């Protein structure tokens, strides 16, 4: 079982799902992991939910995800002034789920800023502050957390989890454990991953202490105290995948098709 090639997003939000896995784990950004999983370089990966909708060949580990039932804190548009006045948003290319979610939310709320690739240091505030008020930037994961904790008083934040909840009344699923179709005994792998999630959540305070201690980014480490991580894991994030989350995932697929981000097609999720 330890020979399974497993990948996981390299963000704090994934720690309760992967900490303590007995075997090697490939940590990388969501877009890289999606490519490696799609090409068969990985057997199992915690990747963006958009990868499942775009390439529905995978089996899904049931009852486990990274999701939010409202504000998620770490998937945001940083902007100045009113969001309705934003004319251009720089995109973080690391997560196709977040970019696709942003496109759906903007279209559904009648906002039409230009969406352009990020240019330069995603954590630099110099250009955002020196340019006109109608510039904004999509930030995700640990970069978004660091940006908010260091520069939060100087910007407004359009939280995509919060906006999704307002629009649909449903949770939003950001990431799932996906298993390639040729992998043998996916049920055993899924059971191990569910048990690992349960073990980590049952000892969440200990996980938080270990997580804070091993953060390599000094700037992030200084701002991430145990109190913040506790709030982030307990209030902003959820780690289940029940009927409401699955409904949210289907709604996301429908809106992606509506706005030409995915081809319209029937969904046939396969859970293990």
CATH topology of the largest domain, which one?
Answer: D-Maltodextrin-Binding Protein, domain 2
The CATH superfamily of the largest domain is identified as Periplasmic binding protein-like II
Which range does the strand content fall in? 15-25%
Low-confidence stretches: none
Quick one: biggest sheet?
A: 6 strands, mixed
Order of helices and strands: EHEHEHEEEEHEHEHEHEHHHHH
Query: Averaged pLDDT, please?
Result: 91
The overall number of domains is 2
Share in helix: 40-55%
CATH class descriptor name of the largest domain:
Alpha Beta
Rg calculated over all Cα atoms: 18 Å
CATH architecture of the largest domain: 3-Layer(aba) Sandwich
Tally of individual helices:
12
Inertia-based shape: globular
Q: Could you say which structural class the secondary elements and strand pairing correspond to?
A: alpha/beta
Number of strands: 11
Give the end-to-end Cα distance, rounded to a whole number of Å.
Answer: 16 Å
Can you walk me through this structure?
Helix content is 43%, strand content 18%. It has helices at 15-18, 30-38, 49-54, 96-108, 126-130, 141-151, 160-168, 186-202, 204-213, 218-223, 226-236, 243-258, and strands at 6-9, 25-28, 44-48, 59-60, 66-68, 75-79, 88-91, 114-117, 135-140, 156-159, 172-179. It starts with 5 loop residues before the first strand and ends in a 14-residue tail after the last helix. The chain is α/β, with parallel strands linked by helices. It is built from twelve helices and eleven strands. The chain has two domains: 6-68 and 171-214 and 237-258, Periplasmic binding protein-like II (D-Maltodextrin-Binding Protein, domain 2, 3-Layer(aba) Sandwich); 75-168, D-Maltodextrin-Binding Protein, domain 2 (3-Layer(aba) Sandwich), CATH 3.40.190.10.
């Amino acid at each position: 079982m330890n020979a399974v090639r497993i990948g996981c997003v390299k963000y704090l939000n994934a720690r309760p799902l992967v900490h303590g896995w007995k075997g090697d784990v490939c940590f990388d950004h969501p877009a890289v992991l999606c490519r490696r999983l799609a090409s068969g370089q990985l057997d199992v990966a915690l990747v963006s939910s958009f990868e499942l909708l775009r390439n529905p060949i995978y089996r899904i580990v049931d009852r486990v995800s990274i999701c939010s039932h409202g504000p998620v804190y770490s998937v945001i548009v940083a902007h100045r002034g009113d969001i309705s006045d934003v004319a251009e948003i720089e995109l973080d290319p690391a997560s196709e789920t977040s970019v696709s979610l942003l496109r759906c939310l903007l279209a559904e709320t009648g906002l039409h800023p230009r969406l352009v690739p990020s240019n330069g240091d995603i954590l630099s505030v110099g250009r955002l502050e020196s340019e006109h008020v109608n510039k904004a930037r999509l930030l995700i994961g640990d970069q978004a957390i660091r940006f908010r904790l260091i520069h939060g008083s100087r910007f407004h934040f359009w939280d995509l989890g919060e906006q999704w909840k307002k629009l649909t009344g449903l949770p939003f699923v950001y990431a799932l454990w996906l298993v390639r179709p040729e992998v043998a005994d996916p049920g055993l792998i899924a059971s191990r991953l569910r048990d690992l999630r349960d073990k980590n959540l049952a000892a969440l305070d200990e996980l938080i202490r270990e997580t804070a201690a091993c953060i390599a980014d000094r700037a992030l480490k200084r701002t991430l105290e145990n109190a913040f991580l506790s709030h982030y894991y307990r209030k902003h994030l959820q780690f289940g995948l029940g009927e409401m989350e699955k409904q949210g995932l289907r709604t996301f697929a429908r809106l992606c098709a509506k706005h030409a981000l995915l081809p319209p097609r029937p969904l046939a999720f396969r859970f293990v």
